[in-house]
Amino acid sequence: MIKSPKNITTFGALERFWTATNFNESKINVFAQDIIKKETRTGITLMALVFFCLLVSAAFIDRFVSLGGPSSYAYLLLAVLCLHVFLASQHSQDLEVLYLLAISLLVISSTTLVLLAHKSGSFSPTFYAGIALLFIFIPFVPWGLREASLVSFLIYLVITLSILSSNHQFSSDSIILLQFFMLSTAFIVLTMVGRNTDMRRNEIIGQYSLQKSHAEMQLLSYKDSLTDIWNRRYLQEKFYYISSQIKQLRKPYYFILFDIDNFKQINDTYGHDYGDHILQWTAESFSKGLKHGDYFFRIGGDEFAFVITSEPLRLLQTGTGELSKEVEQIGKIEHATVAISFGMITVLPEEKEELREVYKKADKALYAAKRHEGSWLVAGDVSAPDLDQSIGYAFETTQPLGGNE
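Above: the chain sequence. Below: its structure as tokens.
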């Protein structure tokens, strides 16, 4: 049977109040899980502590003011149960277990109240106050209307069945009054729960949207708008995290700086729009060879950087070749080739790495590479004393990369 739009709308409106954990979107459900779990634990803790204080006070009054009434022991036993629920809620990580703890406390408390009523033979004001407190405690736990209705029904069922099985110990009028009292109290409480559930859902959705927008804005602030790769800010803020992650793998990594030779002349000769295209082609060409765990940055202008653990020479040769193809196929006829200079530093796992020092040595290697025509790589160690003399240190590179002379 196909649901009508009206039924779907009604069901969707009811669902806002019915459950506090299902948002019909997996990402929001995951986001809300920890929030709801934390709020539930806080609610059960508060409920158990308030309940404990009230029960201890009631036991004291019953014991000393009422001259040793029999219900004082029942109050103390319930207070012990409250302490147990309090301690168990602090260690439980399962939302369903937390719900069961709250339900157990409320249902067992209702059973104890009925037993006390049987013992006294009447519904005293203290009994009605206890029943009201049981229902009032329900909104302490941030569950939806579904769970709150179940708890209310269990409390109502336990009390009603126990009273009806008492062989006419209580008068019909008092039972009818008790029924009206429980149903009206439950209705008021469930109305509050539904309202709280709707407000909580809207609050969680708002928090998720705000966090999502913040993450998107942060991502945009880390991306270079022209080339869509990571920018200088991302390198500066995340370098320590990136290097630490690689260090845990006990692997060396390569920090590579490169720029396009004579880029200012390209801009001045062919225009800034064409220069932007060169930068975009450069980012696209070198991105093709990146492996998982490799990072590619645009530092600014025509300067780029890599932090990689994969084979560096193959990446640089592939990227240079792809860029040459782009320039030949799409670039201006009079601009046939692009030369790139690379400066590379190898950082071993046991070496302390600071971005400033690594960048400085890679920059020196880059300028050493610029002394050669064509696309050249100068490579060395982070601890190399003079990288100007380190041509071919890591790779025996006797020919320019990409075959350019």
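The first strand starts at residue 230 and ends at 231.
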